[in-house]
Structure to design on (426 residues):
């Protein structure tokens, strides 16, 4: 697209109106000002300190505390599928169709696990026209992570916190749609935005074969396998309100699953449903975004119970997130989030929790500095970007624990995490 990051983002990676339109248009909008392929590299050096040491080390080859790491190295190919070369390769007539096909592809080296794997990846075709008198942007997509296609930052894949430490304890429980399938599945769907206000997205996902997953760096051992197809749906409404852009929506997924890829006892049935809202306003030097999401999961665990993975035949889980993100003069930013997870306790389902409880809640505080966001990077690479972040995670409750009572040995606050990170993109 050959534009600065601030053209499409508020506090990166939060999308603004232009960024949402770029995504809806299939990553294929272009100013036609560059002959270079749409390739970028991201480095994330980091430092992690937890309030209490982690016995045995934070991860293999790391200390029990105060760890430095290169958390991620990612290679991106994002834009038109054939970059600026479609007309040269296929001629103008064919290129007019091919340039409507865009790609977002991320391959990541995990500096904690010391492994490479494919990351969020999507190909989509997008076009615009008129349907029943309504101006419509529409498209079809193929991707490997439910909700990555969404144009708002309220659904799981691109929701806050946008990055966190892989060297700090994190709560055990999460809904299936919230990271439980990323990289393990492939989904095909279609979407449409009517009159810039009504958004509809329907699709279906299935689990990829073990050989393919191993070939792209994903370890399928013990994962939740979808039986057949899992439908995904999304409805949203957006409109201007008092100089701001407001969105409210619903999303969900329903899956019959083999727990741990074990089909011997039949399937579990997992239903996730979410509600979300976002309000965003840019005024002068101020960019402010408010985000809210609630995800409710109900699961029938007949297969898991038969396999001895849970004591109950059904359970439920609910996740709350409320976030305010602010950016001043495109340079100095901050964010605050309250998060909470609540559900039914079970010593087998949550065996890694010493209390057998999924209940966690707390706050995330973050300060950001984006030195190149306003005027661009240095002269030798003007499109480069840097985001320096200081993040502090505070736990009021962690997997049911609040203090050192009941012999748990580790309080919720022991897991409080100071995380410093640089996002370097070029």
């Amino acid at each position: 697209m050959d534009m600065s990051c601030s053209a499409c983002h508020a506090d990166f990676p939060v999308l603004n109106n232009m960024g949402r339109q770029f995504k809806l248009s299939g990553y294929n909008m272009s100013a036609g000002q560059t002959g270079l392929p749409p390739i970028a590299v991201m480095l994330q050096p980091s430092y992690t300190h937890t309030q209490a040491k982690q016995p045995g080390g934070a991860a293999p080859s790391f200390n029990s505390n105060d760890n430095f790491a290169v958390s991620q190295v990612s290679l991106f190919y994002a834009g038109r599928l054939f970059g600026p070369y479609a007309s040269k390769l296929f001629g103008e007539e064919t290129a007019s169709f091919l340039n409507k096909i865009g790609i977002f592809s991320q391959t990541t080296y995990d500096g904690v696990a010391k492994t490479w794997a494919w990351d969020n990846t999507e190909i989509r075709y997008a076009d615009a026209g008129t349907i029943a008198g309504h101006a419509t942007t529409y498209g079809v997509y193929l991707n490997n992570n439910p909700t990555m296609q969404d144009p708002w930052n309220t659904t799981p894949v691109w929701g806050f916190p946008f990055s966190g430490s892989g060297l700090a304890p994190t709560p055990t429980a999460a809904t299936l749609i919230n990271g439980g399938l990323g990289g393990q599945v492939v989904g095909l769907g279609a979407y449409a935005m009517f009159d810039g206000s009504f958004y509809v997205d329907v699709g279906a996902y299935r689990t990829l074969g073990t050989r393919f997953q191993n070939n792209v760096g994903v370890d399928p051992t013990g994962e939740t396998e979808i039986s057949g197809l899992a439908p995904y749906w999304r409805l949203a409404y957006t409109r201007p309100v008092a100089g701001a852009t407001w969105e409210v929506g619903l999303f969900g997924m329903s899956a019959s699953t083999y727990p741990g890829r074990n089909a011997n006892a039949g399937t579990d049935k997992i239903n996730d449903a979410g509600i979300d809202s976002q309000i965003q306003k840019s005024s002068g030097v101020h960019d402010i975004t408010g985000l809210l999401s609630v995800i409710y999961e109900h699961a029938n665990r007949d297969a898991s119970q038969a396999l001895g993975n849970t004591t109950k035949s059904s359970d439920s889980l609910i996740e709350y997130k409320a976030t305010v993100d602010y950016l001043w003069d495109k340079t100095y930013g901050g964010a605050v989030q309250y998060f909470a997870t609540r559900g039914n306790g079970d010593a087998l389902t949550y065996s890694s929790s010493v209390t057998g409880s999924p209940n966690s809640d707390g706050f995330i505080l973050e300060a950001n500095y984006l030195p190149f966001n306003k005027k661009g990077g240095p002269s030798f690479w003007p499109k480069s970007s840097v985001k320096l972040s200081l993040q502090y995670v505070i736990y009021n409750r962690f997997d049911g624990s609040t203090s050192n009572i009941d012999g748990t040995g580790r309080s919720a606050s022991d897991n409080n995490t100071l995380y410093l990170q640089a996002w370097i993109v070029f």
Remarks:
- The helical segments are 17-24, 86-90, 92-98, 210-215, 302-306.
- The chain has five helices and 17 strands.
- The first strand starts at residue 39 and ends at 50.
- The two ends are 14 Å apart (CA to CA).
